[in-house]
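If it is no trouble, can you show me the amino acids of a protein and the tokens describing how it folds?
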Amino acid sequence: MSDWTRESLHPVRGLAIALLGAIALAGGSSSAAFAQDASPAASPEAAAPCDAPGLPPGTPTAMEEMASPDASEAIASPVVEGGAEATPVAPEGTPVDDQAVIDEVTAAVENIFNCFNNEDYVATASLFTSNYLVTEFEASNPYDAVAQFEFFGALVNFTLKSVDNVQMLDDGRLLADVTYLNQNQPIAERWELVEEDGYWKLDADYELPDPGTELDSVSMGVQLGGPEGEYTFTLARDTLTAQPAIILHGLNAGAEAHEIAVLTLPEGASVEDLFADGPPPAGLTFHGAIELGPGEEGDLVLEGLEPGVYTLVCFFETPDGESHAALGMVAELTIEAPAA
């Protein structure tokens, strides 16, 4: 399996990339694909200006150094008893009423998105604190994050929807509830910002409940696993009429954890092309993803999907490292234009 598939398309739940999608939904961070016709996100050419301190000259860490035990220990994830990863709890501060401070926080959030959407990845990394780079991107060297952005950046674009509930912590850090589209998927997070070198930088983010959608929508059921086979999708129907929002209600009837990742494949490409060595195929578009444990159900909300053919994929792996998609966990959904 190609190195990028599970990392970048798992997704990247939210900002951390998707980027992370880029880096990962893996580990419960945040995680995404490039704005094309099917995406509401702005193109890099249309993004607003970026203002950032930049980074001192540097280069990414050599692969052999990144694989060393010392490096692995330095970026190890926090764990709780039993080996499970600790789930960060969103902090609470004192509500901010000063409109000037609220405007400053909003501008700082907008600026981070602008830098990334402009594909200015050095600027983007310079607006993340060292704590955020290590926690979310496993990059103690900021140029490691820059290299990840350059590799996955064509899969990622964000559209800011709102900045609300600005709060201040006792040490002067600011909190804000940020809602945005990760491609087509609405995401809500609480951002923690700290002022360094005259810039508000992102120091941590915390998942908030899924924001859903206020748009007119149509919902459709998707069963993951079940009697038909562990590595299957069963769609209530394979064609929908386009609406401002599409909701895929997933139910995991299988014995393993699965995900619904929604993609648009480049013309002439197949799912098998996703597993080739090298970077993501040119023209691949990621729209959103949701992961569900055995017996769990949940909604994947996608806003602004255009008529077209979409591919549903599960990139999770079996214990022996084989992708669920390679075992057949792939389906197609066609979205048709409304009747004239």
Observations:
- Confidence is low (pLDDT under 50) at residues 1-14, 16-45, 71-84.
- The helical segments are 3-8, 15-18, 63-66, 69-74, 99-117, 121-126, 130-137, 142-152.
